[in-house]
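[Structure tokenization] protein backbone as discrete codes
[Encoding] learned vocabulary of local backbone shapes
[Protein] chain in single-letter code, fold in tokens
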Amino acid sequence: MLALLIRHAAVAAQDRIGLRAELPLTETGRAQAQKLAEALRTREIDAIFTSPLRRTMETANAIAGERRLAVILEPALVEVNPGVWENRRFDELAADPSWRLFNAFRSGTRLAGGEMMIEVQARAVAFLEKISHEYRERSVAVVTHADVIRAILCHYVGIPLDLALRVEINPASLTVLQLEEWGARLISLNNT
């Protein structure tokens, strides 16, 4: 299966953690989503799965466009639950020792009241493993969030989860991962 891992297009608050709120795409984000949809127009896509948050659904709907494919909501693709840090700006958190620990030791640090990145990785990878059997020789679009994509890549490419921030995942970017019975292969990363 080819997994087209797509980060949602731009929203107004890119400088904050979590944002499980229902943020719409900005005007720039809508243009990015449309540009991405046009770039994918000639690529065969057999299913489109998305995080249930508004920004991912809007991006997925742009891709679905004229394809006559239903966009399938998938809770396993939702943004990381940051607990008490929800909607806090990164610069506000910079002085917090817990924030620094989370960014240095993502595999073993629970966000206060939220998730561990290893839990995010487990739910996202379990979902991809499940659909890889159903869509064996086909392509699926998976519209989600930067940290979810990083967690997926860390698992399949063999990068320690603690080094996930070394992988850039831009808004409206496409990362292609081939999942086969023999393993996985990264085809492209962060194409915009």
